[in-house]
Design goal:
With 325 residues, the protein is an alpha/beta fold. It has two domains: 170 residues, NAD(P)-binding Rossmann-like Domain (Rossmann fold, 3-Layer(aba) Sandwich); 121 residues, Orthogonal Bundle (N-(1-d-carboxylethyl)-l-norvaline Dehydrogenase, domain 2), CATH 1.10.1040. It is 44% helix and 12% strand. An eight-stranded mixed beta sheet has the order 3-2-1-4-5-6-7-8, with helices on both faces. α1 packs across α2. The chain is globular, with a radius of gyration of 21 Å. The chain starts with 5 loop residues before the first strand and ends in a 10-residue tail after the last helix.
């Protein structure tokens, strides 16, 4: 990627640093903002560490930190990405500022895992150039990124962001409508609702759930997604199983009782030192390191080239109606 490609990242926390690494690894320049200059060296160290994990060198001259969006030369920017904390009022405030500040031909994206871009953009004058981009933590290690088209988003702008994500080695996903949870999180939360229901009902423990997913059906997902996997197994088999199992699945609108109780007790996972498991700083760091090393190995496996099954599936044109446009 040529040197004239430049992304401006508004908000350079953990996610912002990891997204910066994605672009720096492909030869882009990055302008990023964080107001507290005392943290700038830590930001550079995070970016350098993330680049090292994906086997790319760190070129400090191509990573520039600024106090605010007003300090960036937007005339040289290819697109802008907001990556401030997941607080709706803060994100909408940033977009209102960028709406007035950034030249109208430059696409603007929000990095959010839950808020709708249609609501974040609100009454912005240039809402047509605003898109949702949903990266998955850790962003530089997980290939997928959702490109979410808002109610006012131009189709051309959404396609341009899709092409950019593909050009920097991501696996972009078109999300045709701006609905809660987008596409991937809707599927993920359907799984999580049943996983927590299994625990609530005493059918299995947290360890049992994780083992079932990691070493059972989830193990196959690196090789084939759930739809292709059922294509292999037989859609008639899936239909018969669905008729038997679906009526007994949990379909409540309230989060799991166990989940609510843990959070109420302050047991929020690694960040608080305990959730389903108890964590020390050492055990948490070791678990996170093992997690990231496994993600790196999985990404390398996928990058090694498509297997026969994936290659065959990619060559086929799915039958039936398409709903992604």
């Amino acid at each position: 990627m040529s040197e004239d490609k430049r992304v401006a990242i508004i908000g350079c926390g953990v996610m912002g640093c990891d997204v910066a690494a994605i672009f720096l690894a492909k030869g882009w320049s990055v302008d990023a903002t964080t107001r507290d200059e005392a943290t700038w060296e830590r930001r550079r160290e995070r970016v350098q560490a993330s680049l090292a994990q994906i086997g790319a060198p760190f070129a400090p001259a191509r990573f520039r930190l600024h106090h605010a969006a007003q300090d960036i030369d937007w005339s040289k920017v290819t697109f802008g990405l907001e990556s401030v904390p997941e607080v709706f009022e803060l994100k909408s405030q940033v977009f209102a500022e960028l709406d007035a500040l950034v030249p109208p031909h430059i696409p603007l994206a929000t990095n959010t895992s839950g808020f709708r871009i249609s609501l974040i953009a609100g009454d912005c004058r240039t809402a047509h150039r605003m898109v949702g981009l949903h990266f998955f933590l850790p962003a530089h290690l997980v290939p997928a990124v959702e490109v979410v088209r808002g109610e006012k988003t131009s189709a051309d702008v959404a396609e341009s962001l899709y092409a950019i994500m593909a050009s920097v080695g991501r696996k972009p996903i078109r999300v045709a409508r701006d609905v809660p949870g987008f596409l991937a999180n809707r599927i993920q939360h359907a799984l999580m609702r049943e996983a927590f229901a299994v625990i609530d009902e005493g059918l299995g423990t947290a360890e049992d759930v994780d083992t079932a997913v990691r070493y059972g059906f989830g193990f196959r997902y690196v090789a084939a997604g759930p739809i292709l996997q059922k294509e292999f197994a037989g859609l008639d088999t899936q239909l018969a199983a669905a008729r038997t199992i679906y009526p007994s699945l949990h379909n409540g609108a309230e989060p799991s009782r166990t989940l609510q109780e843990l959070v109420a007790q302050g047991r929020r996972g690694i960040k608080s030192g305990g959730g389903f498991w108890d964590w020390t700083p050492d055990s948490a760091n070791a678990a996170l390191k093992a997690y990231e090393e496994t993600l790196i190995a999985a990404a390398r496996l996928l990058d090694a080239g498509p297997g026969a099954a994936t290659a065959t599936a990619d060559a086929q044109t799915p039958k039936g109606p398409r709903h992604d446009r």
